[in-house]
Design brief:
heterodimer, A: about 375 residues, alpha+beta, five-stranded mixed beta sheet, five-stranded antiparallel beta sheet, 25 strands, B: about 80 residues, mainly alpha, about 5% strand, globular
Chain lengths: ~375, ~80
Amino acid sequence: YNHFPRRLKWERNDLTFRITNYTPDLKSTDVDRIIRRALNVWSAATPLTFRKLREGIADIMISFGSKEHGDFNPFDGPNGLLAHAYPPGRDIGGDVHFDEDENWTNDQSDYNLFIVATHELGHALGLAHSSDPGALMYPAYSYNEGFPLAEDDIDGIQDLYGPNPNGKKLKPRPDAPTRCDPELTIDAVTDLRGETYIFKDRFFWRLHPQFPEPQQSLTRSTWPFLPNQVDAAYENPDKDTMFVFRGIRMWAISGYDLVKGYPKYIHKLGLPKRIRKIDAAVYIKDTGKTLLFSDEEYWSYNEAKGTMDTGYPRSIETDFPGIGDEVDAAAYRSGYLYLFNDKLQFEYSYISRKVVRIMRANSVLNC
Amino acid sequence: FSSSSSTEIDDYLLAEKYLRQHYGLSPGLQGSRAASGAFQTKIREMQKFFRLKVTGNLDENTLDIMKQPRCGVPDIGE
């Protein structure tokens, strides 16, 4: 987390706020409720209290405006800049401005006002941006349900004001996974346009062959239409398309865009209805087949014909002896299949049909 | 500008606006943007903040982040 220069903060805990105008995107009662909910998040973590004023000057003045809106810090129309706020202080200090050119919502259909308001109020209380992609105070927008503060946010605000005197234990949002954690397990792995994407919880690491350091991002910052977490993913390079699985649904993605007609149900591939989840998927370039792993079985899908191969499902343990009976994620490279099970990664030779090496799962991240 | 494609020019304009807004890049022409020391210094600051590989170049990862909707408060400094 970061604070503003000179650790700007309010010198008293009983603060006032006032909503000076409303967005037409939501009922004003909804905006009142959202702002109160956002303030309650910060009260839960600190001794701060917030009293609402209906006129006059409050510490935190909240308003909606577009383009140049009176502070010589203009907004930029739809998307891009969503909102901004000023660090604690008199006059404009502590004020929060939302860009009225955005579409403000109470859900995830567009920019969620609660998420953005809680972030901006963090600034109004003295938090600057955090580099932790799992923190609420990370600069880029991402939608998430549940309590919005991560450990990083809580540490940052309590560094300024101390904890809530009622000692109420907070359940922070899980932090971003650390890549070289020896206990790391992964949800999915896929190649994509020459890079490797490793999915874990709400995040993915992007690994470029020339750069040893993978870049971690929030999945929904890059693909907002995807669910927070994914079960499996693979790329069909011939179609320049990545397929992502979560539960019984699958998404086809070209670059950053969702392919028309998706998401679809996984049963469209020819899987029986009893299958409720794909654990791992991998496209074998040399055969043109995609292997789909679910529980202790796997299927082979013929990408060219768009049909399931006959003679499946087959048992994972029988065909891939030595890796265990289930697979978390799978990748294929130069004649080797990489099958991830829990904290381990098995390098399986497709030619000699046996496991030739066992590594830690995090070795895929150059750990 | 050299005979860059219009996309590259758009990317540099987007980057320059982003760095002015969030990293205090001073306004006004930066000479040949790509080479200007100030421009590259700010790119490095931004790449460091977002834990990207610090190259000083306007690479794809860096541009991806610059295109994400975000808060208007600067990432560094006043």
